[in-house]
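Run log // design_07
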């Protein structure tokens, strides 16, 4: 359920995705029913191959679906959506443009006036600690800085919805920890609706208002857990008993699926509980 007072932004009704492959049809996802409120940070949490990326692509209008409907702001998603921002696991920056130029690429590609967005781009970059780096090129940046640039690029055109597909997944553990903090900061500042895909349990707890737990493929919603922890989720919050209880609760769900178990075995998924 969407929290009382939140206006619905995304409505997913009975959505199902079946890929056609040479080996035959692959039922990747669904049926899924999910409603996401405006300004919510919602994580899709599940093991590899359960259809998380598929769901994100469907919401973005980048894939066709077999059954059901997806609405954004009351409009049926039947083509690629333009009023969204997307962040992938890799930053996908243009090598020959500096940081500011990469953020503004979003604006230029949309045929908007670059001059109108320079100030905003600088503000976004400042909020993620990149104020001093706007003239640097991607090769001069660390992976974390590149991904921060990608966050800014996904927000510069002020989309109501941002889709993030494991955006911290390729970073080392310490950078990842920092980027979680930066991402929450950015979200608190912009109050966008975020649909965030992850396979990390602690990450989902740290960032989300709600965690939507997926079953193994075909991905269906096993549970939706509301995370009632104060924000910003400081180190004190992360070390609290309540935080650990949420981690425990989510871990138990995956243990029940047989995806996690106590002994290291063939289907032990380290990436779900720890830092990669
Ligand atoms: N284009 C495709 N054609 C056939 N099968 C696909 C395609 N894309 C994804 N799949 C399959 O669908 C399932 C879900 O994929 P995906 O959404 O990428 O999972 P996740 O993001 O949770 O790891 C996987 O089993 C994957 O192999
Ligand atoms: Mg994926």
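design_07 sequence
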């Amino acid at each position: 359920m969407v929290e009382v007072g939140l206006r619905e932004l995304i409505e997913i009704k009975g959505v199902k995705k079946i890929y056609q492959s040479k080996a035959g049809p692959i039922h990747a996802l669904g049926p899924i029913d999910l409603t996401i409120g405006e300004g919510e940070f919602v994580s899709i949490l599940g093991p590899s191959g359960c259809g998380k990326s598929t769901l994100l692509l469907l919401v973005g209008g980048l894939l066709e679906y077999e059954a059901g409907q997806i609405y954004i702001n009351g409009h049926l998603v039947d083509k690629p959506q333009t009023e969204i921002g997307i962040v992938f696991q890799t930053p996908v920056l243009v090598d020959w443009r500096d940081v500011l130029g990469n953020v503004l690429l979003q604006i230029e590609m949309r045929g908007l006036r670059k001059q109108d967005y320079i100030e905003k781009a600088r503000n976004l970059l400042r909020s993620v600690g990149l104020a001093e780096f706007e003239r640097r090129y991607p090769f001069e940046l660390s992976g974390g800085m590149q991904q921060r640039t990608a966050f800014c690029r996904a927000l510069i055109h002020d989309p109501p919805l941002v889709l993030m597909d494991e955006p911290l997944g390729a970073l080392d553990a310490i950078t990842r920890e920092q980027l979680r903090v930066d991402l929450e900061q950015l979200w608190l500042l912009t109050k966008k609706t975020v649909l965030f895909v992850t396979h990390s349990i602690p990450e989902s707890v740290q960032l989300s208002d709600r965690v939507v737990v997926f079953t193994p493929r075909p991905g269906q919603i096993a549970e939706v857990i509301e995370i009632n922890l104060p924000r910003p989720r400081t180190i004190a919050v992360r070390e609290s008993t309540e935080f650990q209880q949420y981690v425990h609760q989510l871990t138990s769900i995956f243990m029940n699926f047989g995806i996690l178990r106590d002994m290291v075995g063939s289907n032990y998924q380290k990436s779900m509980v720890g830092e990669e």
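Strands lie at 8-21, 24-37, 41-45, 67-72, 75-76, 84-87, 161-165, 193-198, 210-214, 221-226.
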